[in-house]
Every structure is written in C-alpha cells, then in structure tokens.
Specification:
Chain lengths: ~350, ~90
C-alpha cells in the first residue's frame, strides 16, 4: 500500500479545463502546464524512489518545508518526464541549502534566476543539452527541469511576482536555466569533480544568476587572446563592488583554442581574476564607488571577486562559432553561494 | 472528470507573543538594526537621534546584520535583548 498523497484535490471536467484551472489558480509561470493527476505524481515519486512525505528541503528563512510530493506535483506541471525527477530533487536540495540562502535570490529586486549546471552520467542519459543552442530552445530536459525548479519556488516557497518575488526586471532564464557540461569533448576537469565529487557521480550545481552575456572573439588563436576579450567584457558587469560568483561558459571553438595552449581551468580562473580588477578611480568616476577620486586611486585595484575560486568554468555550447559567455552571480559575496549536490538515483 | 493535486502549500500559523509597547520612550535604550545596504545606517541613525532629542530616549546603539537577505543573527538578537528596551529595524534598498 503506497503512502497517501495528502495534497488538496480539485476536480475539473477534462484536460483543457484542467489547464485553464491551473492558470486561474495562479500555479503557472505563464505557459500551459501538464495537469498534475495522482498517477503522474506517483510516477515522479517512484522514479526518485521517494516517499511523498519526505522532506527534500527546508527553507529556513521562510520556514517552508518542501516535501517530495510537492516537488513531484510541480515537476508534473512543468512537463518533466519521471526520470528527470532526481535532478529536480537535487536542484531543490541545492536552493534549500543555507549557503544558497534562498530568501535573497528568491525575492530580490535584482531578479536572479537559478542557473542549474548538470554534470556526470545523468546529463548524457537524460539528454540534457550541452551543445548547440545551449540556453535553448529545443531540449525538453533543460526546459522542464528548470521550469520545475521555478514552479517549486513559486508554488511552495512563495516566490510569486509582486509579492515575495520583487524582481525589477527578471530575465528569461527565470523560466528555465539548465545546462549540462560537455564532458564528452571537454579536455578539462568537470565542474562537479572540481567541487568535490567523483567523475562517475552525477550532480547539479545551482547558482543564483543574472542572464548570460555573450562575448565575441573571432580573431585570436591563443588562450590569452580569447580570455583577454572575456576579461574586458566581464570587468564591468553585475555588481562590480563584490560579485559572489561568475559562471564562465566556454563553447567549442574557444574551448579548443584555450585548451590547445595547455591552459587548465585553474589557470583560466587565475587569469580572469587578475584581469577583471578595476581601479578605484574608474569605479568612482563611473559612480559605482562612492567618493571623489583621490591620489593613488588610479593604481589601486579592486577585484571583481574575492577569489579566483569564485569563478565557475564550464565547457559547453556549440562546436562552431567563436562565441562564449559569462554569467554574473547575484548580489554580494556574503549573500548567496553556489551549491553542488549529488543526484541520487 | 479529472482530479488534480494542489502544488501549493498551506501557510502554517503559529502564535507570536508581542511584548507590551512602552508608554513612553523616556530613558529607554534604543537598538537600531541595519541591513548592510549602502546608506541604510544613515536614516536609522537619524531616527535614533530624533528618538533621543524629541522623545527623551537615553541613547541608541547600532547593530549590523550579516547581510540584507537574512534575519538578524542570534548574537545580535541576544545582545539587543540584554542592552536595549526598544528596537527599530528597517530595510535600506
């Protein structure tokens, strides 16, 4: 006898009515949803081998307990296949972690999305896109896993626009913001391994994030050349007075150019950290730092990030095209940290 | 007929006991809690000054949260409860 599902039940006439009913209840992100019937919800729970009452996460600052049943219902709404459920669960564990500090990125006027980076075998098994059109559209796993995370935030954690979600602008990644690392082609250590897991484990890394910003370098054939362009683009972006993180996504051509010079991720991070510092004089002249420029400000440097380790380097994106991107994190170094969780299957 | 499961959670309620409001601020020690945002300490300090000069408060002490996105941490809550009679918290954004 399976454990009872305790969520409130609503009756509607047919599937079309069900979709409209979900809109009227405010359960949708603006797109049609899949009606969450008991059979579909149970299939999600079974795929993750979770009892409905099990707590997946607890958002301390809002005193909200997120149960497996609620994650499953929202995963159905989002259009997930049951086998995606363990990835959704790991991402929800990530945003519930105290280091992620949910209330800030879930509420702030700065309008962060939750960037979810999938690593390990699960990414390939579920066909989570790591290549062309990395940020979409076109891949069910990417779009529905990300959508499920956002619907949990909306329907369980209370992050609804206009109330406990006060994003001034928001961004398209707040609908769904899931990528995988291209471990098959990457010459570098995968992100989850850098963050303490083994290569054969599957993992998600969640990061409170602004939208992706593409940069061009169609000229250089060296690592230093490509990364000099990237650093110049990054230097004035996001909260230049103290970013917690950047995610740097290096696509095929740039990845091959940089790796061809023998640079690993550590060297990439160190170079970017050193070359994204701003002078106090520039920050003051451009009204990002208070006060008038003083003697010495032209040579006093302020790092964009506290440490090179705060840059997450991911190999992903199409094979062709001399473009890559960087993604500023949300707010400040104390406010939210990227979190990596194993996908348990 | 189709039966749908509700994806939302019911808000749980719990009683909160409030202390009585002081009848007067005369001689009261004021605690100010600022949220670390740029300039957030300035209006609070001004409020503290006004409570002192216009309402007779004994003085004020500023406390600083870890960051603007989290509740005040235990250490400053404990310190506030020991050293202040009244507190003012606000958000600077």
């Amino acid at each position: 006898m399976p454990a009872a599902l305790t969520s409130k039940r609503h009756r509607v006439e047919d599937p079309a009515d069900a979709i409209e009913f979900c809109f009227r209840q405010g359960w949708s992100d603006g797109l049609p949803v899949v009606p969450p019937t008991e059979a579909r919800v149970r299939a999600m729970l079974e795929a993750a081998r979770l009892p409905p009452e099990q707590q997946v996460g607890f958002v301390a600052h809002r005193a909200v307990s997120i149960t497996a049943e609620k994650v499953a219902i929202n995963a159905v709404l989002a259009g997930c296949r049951p086998e995606y459920m363990p990835v959704v669960v790991a991402a929800v564990e990530g945003i519930s972690d105290l280091r992620f500090s949910y209330h800030g990125p879930g509420t702030s006027t700065a309008g962060a999305g939750v960037l979810v980076i999938v690593n390990g075998p699960v990414a390939r098994e579920l066909d989570v896109n790591a290549g062309d059109n990395l940020f979409g559209p076109g891949w069910r796993a990417n779009l529905t896993i990300g959508r499920a995370v956002r619907l949990v935030m909306r329907n369980v954690c209370g992050s609804r626009p206009g109330t406990l979600d006060r994003g001034t602008l928001g961004h398209p990644g707040r609908l769904a913001y899931v990528i995988a690392e291209n471990e098959a082609d990457s010459p570098w250590t995968p992100l989850h391994v850098e963050r303490g897991l083994r290569a054969e484990q599957s993992a998600v890394t969640v990061m409170a994030a602004e939208g992706p910003r593409q940069f061009y370098n169609q000229l250089s054939a060296t690592a230093e050349g490509v990364l000099t362009t990237l650093a110049d683009d990054m230097r004035i972006s996001g909260n230049v007075m103290g970013q917690p993180h950047y995610c740097v996504v290096l696509a095929g051509e740039h990845m091959r150019t940089i790796a061809g010079d023998g640079w690993d991720k550590k060297r990439i991070r160190q170079f970017l950290w050193e070359h994204t510092r701003n002078t106090h004089a520039h920050l003051k002249r451009t009204q990002r730092m208070s006060g008038a420029p003083e003697p010495g400000d032209e040579t006093t440097l302020r790092p964009l990030l506290a440490s090179p380790e705060d840059i997450l380097v991911v190999a992903a994106g199409g094979r062709a095209g001399a473009f890559s991107c960087y993604i500023p994190g949300w707010s400040s170094v104390k406010s939210s940290q990227a979190v990596t969780k194993e996908v348990k299957r | 007929m189709i039966e749908l499961l509700d994806p939302t959670v019911e808000a749980t309620t719990r009683p909160i006991t409030y202390v009585d409001r002081p009848r007067s601020l005369e001689g009261k020690r004021i605690g100010l809690v600022e949220n670390t945002k740029f300039n957030s300490d300035r209006p609070l300090a001004r409020i503290g000054d006004l409570l002192k000069t216009e309402y007779g408060a004994a003085g004020w002490t500023m406390f600083r949260k870890h960051n603007s996105s989290v509740p005040a941490h235990d250490e400053i809550v404990q310190e506030l409860s020991k050293t202040c009679d009244v507190m003012v918290a606000g958000i600077g954004d």
